[in-house]
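WARN retry 2 of 3 for item q-0093 after timeout on previous attempt; input resubmitted unchanged.
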Amino acid sequence: MRRPGLFAGLILALAVAAPVAAAGGDHTQNFTDTFHGYQTTSDVNPCNGDTVNISETSTVVNHVTYFPASDEVWGTFTEEDKVSATDTGTSVGYTGHDTIWGNINLNRQNANSTFTATIRATGSDGSTLAYHETTHVPMLPNGDVSVSFDKVSVTCG
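OK item q-0093 returned
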C-alpha cells in the first residue's frame, strides 16, 4: 500500500528536538509527546498497480533526549496504525495494521538515522499483502554519508 517516507520521520524528530534544545539548561532534557489521529489518503497497491483509498487510525509517540554538555540529541518515533483500504480496480477491501519506527542520533562527531516500516493487510477476498522496509543512513563528521541502504520487501498472496 503506501510507502512511508524516511524524511518525514527525520523532520518530525528534528522538529520535536528543537523545543527541547531551546529549553536550555545544563542537565539532560527529555521530551515525549503522544498523538492520536485519523487520516485518509490514496496510493498504489504494490501487488497489482491499482489505486487504493486508505483510512488510518493512528497513535504516534515521539521521544527526544537532549544532552547539552555534549551537544547530543537522540530522537525516536513510533507510529501504530489500524489500516483499512479499498482497491478501486477490484473493489477488494483490506484491513490490517502497520508499525513505523524511526530514530535519529546527532552529536559533534557523526549522525545516523534508521527507519523501519511493516504493513500487513488481509483482503476481503482472502488475499494478503505484506510490506517491510528498513533504511539506515550514517553520516561522517564532514557530512558525507558513509554507507546507506534502503531494503524493501513486498509479498502478495
